[in-house]
Hints:
The chain is an alpha+beta fold.
Amino acid sequence: MSTEARVTSNFFDAFFAFAAGSGGTIEQFPGVRCIRSTIPFFEFNCAFVSDKAGVRPESLERVKSFFSGQRSEWMLVVPPSVGEDFCEIPRHISRTRLVRQPEMILPKASASLRPPPSDLEICRVRDVEDLQSWARTMSIGFEMSDPNFFDRLATPQSLATEGLTFYLGSCSGKPVATSLLYKSDNIAGIHRVSTIPEFRGRGFGEAMASFAVRDGFQSGCDLASLQASSMGFPVYLKMGFRHILNYRNWVVPPECKDHPQ
């Protein structure tokens, strides 16, 4: 399997693991897998296209039906391997906006990760109480209006989901940063890296990502991967990550209607 295929599979499967842990609904259509989450945030409500069948009109109609009644934005994620067969998307799912999301990788053989700052303590989340703290820290780190926005992730099922490890960073006893590791096919997928606003600029985000990467490498992974935000992209470049591709993410508003005929 190619590197692109491995990291794309890890990316997609991580979100199905999130959905399974938080009571989401999963459905498979030709060429596309869909997640409808209980969390009203577009990154947790996605249709992941795996091949060209997923962007055919009949598949897009089924995807639209799956997300009908969704109260939040949702997202159609198209990897480069699908090629240019995505021109039908805005014709069948209207009012979309296209966001290009970088995929970055770091091979174990070339990794040189700095130790965390001395004032940051990082631990693996072991129980639901700590997972709730993780979820609330991430809500603040992602600057959601509700500090309890991601509370539905804090379930025993999330903790028990195979491949998922949650990390919480604290400074002087205060939870301030998060990250998450999803392992599959010897890939250490890094997700949900966040730092609450007043603690940014101190290297905490880099430290949270690095801690998860080390865990992945120590457990047998040979490659780390992540999907970078605009804020995180320069940080990951400095860590040694390399940009290898862009996903095309078509973000769709709630109750999206067709173009008039």
